[in-house]
From TrEMBL:
<dbReference type="GO" id="GO:0004735">
    <property type="term" value="F:pyrroline-5-carboxylate reductase activity"/>
</dbReference>
<keyword id="KW-0560">Oxidoreductase</keyword>
<dbReference type="InterPro" id="IPR000304">
    <property type="entry name" value="Pyrroline-COOH_reductase"/>
</dbReference>
<feature type="domain" description="Pyrroline-5-carboxylate reductase dimerisation">
    <location>
        <begin position="157"/>
        <end position="258"/>
    </location>
</feature>
<feature type="domain" description="Pyrroline-5-carboxylate reductase catalytic N-terminal">
    <location>
        <begin position="2"/>
        <end position="93"/>
    </location>
</feature>
<keyword id="KW-0521">NADP</keyword>
<dbReference type="InterPro" id="IPR008927">
    <property type="entry name" value="6-PGluconate_DH-like_C_sf"/>
</dbReference>
<dbReference type="InterPro" id="IPR028939">
    <property type="entry name" value="P5C_Rdtase_cat_N"/>
</dbReference>
<dbReference type="Pfam" id="PF14748">
    <property type="entry name" value="P5CR_dimer"/>
</dbReference>
<keyword id="KW-0028">Amino-acid biosynthesis</keyword>
<comment type="pathway">
    <text>Amino-acid biosynthesis; L-proline biosynthesis; L-proline from L-glutamate 5-semialdehyde: step 1/1.</text>
</comment>
<protein>
    <recommendedName>
        <fullName>Pyrroline-5-carboxylate reductase</fullName>
        <ecNumber>1.5.1.2</ecNumber>
    </recommendedName>
</protein>
<comment type="similarity">
    <text>Belongs to the pyrroline-5-carboxylate reductase family.</text>
</comment>
<dbReference type="InterPro" id="IPR036291">
    <property type="entry name" value="NAD(P)-bd_dom_sf"/>
</dbReference>
<comment type="function">
    <text>Catalyzes the reduction of 1-pyrroline-5-carboxylate (PCA) to L-proline.</text>
</comment>
<keyword id="KW-0963">Cytoplasm</keyword>
<keyword id="KW-0641">Proline biosynthesis</keyword>
Length: 266
């Protein structure tokens, strides 16, 4: 696959790492205006760094946009005349609707929105996808790309903002939980490095139990909570202090933030 990433910042770099390590590319163009921060990709076979978005688009078929929302419209205008029937446009931009993309490139382009997360760098992103009517013919290509880099789910466009909170921002939310459990482990006697190792592997184990067994979290919790034991004591104290409520409130606040910002202001 001939892929271009337009805007190789935090997310773009993560996607690039995933694509390179999984050998998913025939060629990969990485663009940004200042190329200094992506020199780590220089020298990889078939990977090209450029500030010229037009060059990247004309030499690629799959164009992944990963710029800040306020930059997308200008870039779409810049490259619109170069687009052919071979191009598949994949936008990872938060809050930028398919309708708005079509207003720059037309309804005849294959347009897909993707919401991955930074775990794409290590092949563990869950990526939500939706498309315009024409793009439905190419959604399998997007699924094939993102399934190499984790898992994917096709969803209706109206759920993309919710997907952003759950999956993309979700990485930051889970990091805070891992940091908090690390801090607790240090207070309980482990040194910092051991504490983080225990916290992150326990987190991975909990997620894998659900992924492998398909159980509801409470079924797994029931297996751990000895009556009158230390686990239920800790869990109930966390809930008295608002653990679940705080997480739900935080995610709803995050969702409201996305919905409160018009794309023009992003
Ligand atoms: N970060 C995340 O975890 C996620 C982000 N997203 C979405 O992805 C998008 C990117 O986010 P993120 O990676 O965090 O943002 P960054 O600011 O880290 O990356 C954006 C990159 O775009 C480059 N850029 C700006 N203008 C141009 C241009 N005209 N041509 C080419 N490149 C350009 C910038 O580099 P330079 O200034 O050198 O040009 C910058 O490196 C956002 O829309 C965000 O909503 C979605 C899911 C997860
Ligand atoms: O925080 C943000 O707004 C973006 C969208 C999801 C991840 N980063």
């Amino acid at each position: 696959m001939k892929i271009a990433i337009i805007g190789t910042g935090n997310l773009g770099c993560s996607i690039a790492k995933g694509l390179i390590t999984t050998n998913a590319i025939t060629s990969l163009y990485l663009t940004k205006r200042d190329l200094k921060s992506i020199q780590e990709f220089d020298g990889y076979k078939n990977v090209y760094l450029t500030s010229d978005n037009k060059e990247a688009v004309s030499k690629s078929d799959i164009i992944i946009f990963a710029v800040q929302p306020s930059h997308l419209e200008g870039i779409l205008e810049e490259i619109a005349s170069l687009l052919t029937e071979n191009h598949v446009l994949i936008s990872t931009i938060t809050g930028f609707s398919i309708e708005k993309i079509e207003s720059s490139v037309g309804k005849d382009q294959f347009v897909i929105r993707a919401m991955p997360n930074t775990a794409i760098a290590v092949g563990k992103s869950v990526t939500c996808l939706c498309s315009n009517q024409k793009g439905a013919e190419r959604i399998k290509i997007a699924e094939a790309i993102f399934n190499r880099l984790g898992t994917s789910m096709v969803i209706p466009e109206h759920l993309m903002q919710a997907a952003t909170v759950v999956c993309a921002s979700g990485i930051a939310f889970w990091m805070r939980l891992i940091r908090a459990t690390t801090q607790a482990a240090i207070q309980l006697g482990f040194d910092a490095k051991e504490a983080q190792e225990l916290a992150m592997h326990t987190c991975e184990g909990a997620a894998n139990l659900l992924i492998t067994n398909g159980n509801h979290p409470e079924q797994e919790i029931d297996k751990v909570t000895t009556p009158k034991g230390c686990t239920i004591e800790g869990l109930n104290e966390m809930e008295h202090k608002g653990l679940s409520s705080s997480l739900i409130h935080g995610m709803v606040a995050s969702f409201q933030k996305i919905n409160s910002i018009k794309t023009e202001q992003l």
